[in-house]
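User: Can you predict the 3D structure for this chain?
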Amino acid sequence: MLAKLKWVLLFGACLLVGVFLGSVFKSPPDQRSGVSDSPAVEAPGGENAPDNSMTWSVTVGSKPWAVALSPGGDVAYVANQQSRTVTFVQTRTRRVAATVEVGQLPSAMALDAQGGLLYVANNGDDSLSVVDVDKRTVVATVSVGDGPSGIALDRGTALVTNFGDATVSIVDLATRSVTGVIPVGKGPSAVVVDGRRAYVTNNGDRSLSVIDVDARTVIGTVDLRDTPYSLAADPTSHRVLVTGVDGGEVIVVDTTSLQVSGHWTVGHGPQGIGIDPGSGVAYVSVGSRGLALVDLKKGTVTTTVDVGAAPNAVAVDPKSHLVVVADSGDRSISVRQP
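Assistant: Here is the predicted structure, written as structure tokens:
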């Protein structure tokens, strides 16, 4: 098996983020599937906390790494790398409703809400788990490339980045089979679809690959000059926002010119990013326990709020304005619920 994506977070006096290793993690402990009734824990400030604070948290599995939200934000799906599970959290009741076992090192997810299926990219065993969210069980497993690390859905297909072999697999969701493979840069990790293009962050060569999803080919490459971690498309403008780990920044890419058009300083070691276009805010996980709120018009941080340890993925529901952060060092998620 080729080298896979490994993100190592070291704690102590400082936080080291975005480290990739060539070896495989030790086997994580087993966690029994089933239904739980774990209550939420109020974060500092509680329900009367000021606007923009994180209002509550709930314990999930070991090393939560990715988050997906149902439309409206009623359910948060959390992929736990070391537990090899996905936790279902009901945000209205603030409780864990179920835990489903998936593959090894689940690292990214995408929800087909209409089809009632959650697609989980398992970095440790080169697979895609298909989870029926109503039955709360895995209904299929699809083999993809080496070290799947990111996933995005597009018109009946899934685009899966394969960190180990520098490709994107095109998966037909009806037949649940790979129908194409697109070579990209070294160490592809995150992917987002915006219109008829997909954007892929390449950690190994610090670049962004631009894919024509209809032609299934790379039509451009943007030199980021920083190590990318995650990205989000801003639906209110022709921009893709990429977190740059080394520079403590968000890199702004103009999707018309395919050029870097700006750099926003956000804080140490930014990782996950989510956009709330209605509020005009980008949420970026930073440092050992921070979430930076960035004004999308000005490109400046308005405030940074406390979350759990080693915040990673960020998910935002544009309808309810719910924000969920995966706290990979705390076995928890932090939630801002207006």
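Residues 41-330 form a domain with the Methylamine Dehydrogenase; Chain H fold (CATH 2.130.10.10). The longest strand covers residues 95-101.
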